[in-house]
Amino acid sequence: MRLKLLLIIVTFAIHTNYSQQISSPDSKLTLTIKLSESNELIYNLVRDGKTVIKDSKLGIDLSDQPDLMGGFKIDAVVTSNFLEEWEPVLGEVDKIVNNYNQMQVTLIQPKEKRKMIVTFRLFNDGLGFRYEFPVQDNLKYFTVLEENTQIALTGDHKTFWIPGDYDSQEYTYTTSLLSEINSARGKNVDEISVKSIPGDNFVQTPLMMKTNEGLYINIHEAALLDYPAMYLKVDKNNFTLQSHLCPDAYNNKAYMQTPCKTPWRTIIVSDKAEEILSSKMILNLNEPTKFEDVSWIKPKKYIGIWWGMHVGTMSWNYSDINNVKLGEVDWNSLTPNGKHGATTENTKRYIDFAAKHGFDAVLVEGWNVGWEDWFGAWKEEVFDFVTPYPDFDVAELEKYAKSKNVELIMHHETSASVTNYERRLDEAFTFMKDHGYNAVKTGYVGKIIPRGEHHDGQWMINHFTRVLEKAEKYQICIDSHESVRLTGLHRTYPNWLAAEAARGNEFNAWSIGNPPEHETILPFTRFMGGPMDYTPGIFQIKMDYYKPESKYQVHTTLAKQLALYVTIYSPIQMAADLIENYERFPDAFTFIEQVPVNWSDTKILKAEPGDYVIIARKDKDSDDWYIGAITDEEARDFDVKLDFLPADKYEMTIYKDAPDADWEKNPMKYEIEKRTINKKDVLKLNLAPGGGCAIILKPL
Ligand code: NOJ
Ligand code: CA
To answer: Cα of 617 to ligand 2 centre, how many Å?
Structure first.
């Protein structure tokens, strides 16, 4: 890893209330801090002379002692700058530049004799800041009642939002003005089984906004560790956002012991939507990894015994009994239900297919006992993570997978019984390593045990970290479902390959699903924090294929499912459909066979949240480029310049919507064309309603 470091420190202590400023390295952004009349800390953010964030207050309310919200004196302001270049273990680009100007403001409350530091980092693409609490006599332990970070916006911006739910992010996005936000009436609220929405005005981050003047603003957090996730409470009259943290069972927010710090609050700003997507600010605000050896962390393109359960042709459960007490059931005596997906034979079929088509791995869900009544039982002991069903031969499959050079991906559905999972974690990870598994998809469906805790609370945040740290000891990679959304922590914990933490493709199998615009909003929201296991690649679009009465469908064309492999970044990426469906469309499947999941360069060519995204990426292991273009429900035509390409001439294979394709009326019609193109050419793309196109470029 190459590292360039440049550090200049200017220190001055001031006891009066002068305002202090820093600007971004390119001087476009200016941050000003000052104290209010009642000695609260205030900041504002200006871009090119125009206010982006108006005067906003910072502070923290405590439940066990006087608050840290006012009565401050500025004790010192330290400014510095920083420049480094680092290489992510897996990623969208080879190298990331981390360049910011920093201002560290030390505040003291003279009466309480307490100290709080607020550190601001101003990058060319935005602002990050956090609260820090050094060791001190009058602040050893404290309980956070609420963090009062304000973000005062300049107007009634257009906003892409989902309700601020303590337990789920699996919603589709509503696009509205800030003043029109009504979380309790957000889309799909009734569909979510475990929901805890505190009120009408709460939204989740990453929150994407666009001003009337065409400025894009994205708000999220970075490095969420030992602290609850943050939501935003919207004041619809003043257009001010206020932090709201996920509570615990006592309605407290966080328990802190000095020295300690909060996560970074992030505000990414640009007048180009494309620059929001290429921002690396959130990753840059996370600490470099402390893992000494990262050689075992490998990207994975995988298939799985999975979609069959979601469309109803297979089951997770082996039998149809409905009351399982772990350890008290004689599994061998039960009658199989005939639909069990995770059989030795079926798994071998998937391993064969993976080997034949160049996949790294096969995920198998439903391999272990307990699925008979896992859902909604809210019981302590659901799964033990080590006992296979009688028809799943772990040792035989380990041997078979190895002989075909294919990995098996473990599945640990915890059913949100997290105490049970933690208790069994060492045993579960040992079992994995004993049988050749290097990665696990974890799941947290249901209401959390310990009861009263939420998926996004401090207790669960610490659980996710404990799992990552233990997994590193066993050299295991994690793909977490129903976990907290990512905050760039995959820089620090590169074994966190991806999370779900948003509404994935699976919703299209068994609900009204995800509208065609969904995948054009996700990059600006959920993906700002890191990779998502979205599970693209569904070829059989309409679900009446499985159940004649079904009205459900994937809300894209088949070509758009291919394009998602490029527009979505994840180092663990599934080809989610049944292998029988891939066998029906072998020519379209060649794109999935070829597309990489690890990249050395990425260019965001065109993007607009809610409308379209066009991204080009370079394969890490060759000079091939890939382009993915997707649109919402509208047909769109684009002229795409190819002058970013390094070579002059390429052989282009383009997988595109047929002229009469349409996500609703004719979703599975596509065409494949092969021709030579030149980097000086302008590529004409015609995307169908809900459509997309996927392109492979090989230098000639
Ligand atoms: C929800 C996950 O998102 C899905 O992928 C999984 O199949 C089920 N839980 C069962 O664990
Ligand atoms: Ca899920």
So the answer is: 27
User: Which residue CA neighbors atom 7 of ligand 1 most closely?
Assistant: 306
Question: Tens digits of per-residue pLDDT, 205-247?
Answer: 999 999 999 999 999 999 999 999 999 999 999 999 999 999 9
Set 407, 506, 517, 519: catalytic member: 506
The residues, any chain, with a CB within 8 Å of residue 141's CB and separated by 6 or more, are: 64, 255, 256, 257, 258
Q: What's the pLDDT band for 1 if we cut at 50, 70, 90?
A: very low
What number is the average pLDDT over the span 381-394?
97
* Per-residue pLDDT tens digits for 440-496: 999 999 999 999 999 999 999 999 999 999 999 999 999 999 999 999 999 999 999
Nearest CA to ligand 1 atom 6: 443
Report the pLDDT averaged over residues 581-594: 98
Give residue 168 CA to ligand 1 midpoint distance, Å.
13
Distance 482 CA to ligand 2 centre (A): 5
Q: Is the pLDDT of residue 17 over 80?
A: no
Ligand nearest to the CA of 479: 1
Print the domain residue range for 241. Answer: 2-284
Structural domain tally of the chain?
Answer: 1
Better-predicted residue by pLDDT, 2 or 250? 250
Asked if residue 664 is part of any domain, the answer here is no
Ligand 1 atom with least separation from CA of 411: 11
Q: Kindly indicate the confidence band of residue 16, based on its pLDDT and cuts at 50, 70 and 90.
A: low
Look up the pTM and report it.
0.97
Q: Are 119 and 80 in contact (CB under 8 A)?
A: no
Which ligand is nearest to the Cα of residue 445, counting in written order?
1
Which residue did the predictor score with more confidence, 323 or 392? 392
Which residues fall within 8 angstroms of residue 328, CB to CB, at 6 or more apart?
A: none
Residue 326 domain-assigned? no
Which residue from 334, 343, 338 is spatially nearest to 367, judged by alpha carbons?
Answer: 343
- Position in ligand 1 atom list of the atom nearest CA 500: 3
Give the whole-angstrom CA distance, residue 666 versus residue 657: 10
Distance, in Å, from the CA atom of 300 to the CA atom of 298, rounded to the nearest integer, reads 6
* CA–CA separation, 631 and 519 (whole Å): 9
Give the pLDDT mean for 45-58: 98
Model confidence over 184-202: pLDDT tens digits? 888 888 888 888 999 999 9
For residues 266 and 219, the answer to whether their CB atoms sit within 8 Å is yes
- pLDDT of the residue at 8: 54
d(CA 194, CA 553): 24
Is residue 519 annotated as part of the catalytic site, yes or no? no
User: Does residue 363 lie within any of the structural domains?
Assistant: no
For ligand 1, mutation pick of 421, 441, 506 (most atoms within 8 Å of CB): 506
Distance CA 192, CA 138 (A): 44
Pocket test for ligand 1, best of 307, 373, 413 (most atoms within 8 A of CB): 413
User: Does some domain include residue 365?
Assistant: no
* Domain CATH code at residue 28: 2.70.98.10
Nearest Cα residue to atom 3 of ligand 1: 481
Q: How far from each other are the two terminal CA atoms of the chain, in whole angstroms?
A: 32
Ligand 1 lining (C-beta closer than 6 Å): 306, 365, 413, 443, 445, 481, 500, 506
> 443 alpha carbon to ligand 1 midpoint, in Å?
6
Distance of CA 510 from the midpoint of ligand 2 (Å) = 12
Mean pLDDT of the 294-313 span: 98
